[in-house]
Specification:
Length: 39
């Protein structure tokens, strides 16, 4: 699988990709949400 012989390395690789996708989705969802900057 993608040249990886150890399944643990494959799981870590998949986790890294899913983490990056999750961060991108979180940023996209919260892009235009305003903070509590009013005084």
């Amino acid at each position: 699988m993608l040249g990886m012989e150890d399944p643990v390395i494959a799981l870590v690789w998949i986790g890294t990709v899913l983490s990056a996708v999750g961060c991108a989705l979180f940023g996209w969802v919260n892009w235009n949400k305003g903070g509590d900057d009013s005084k």
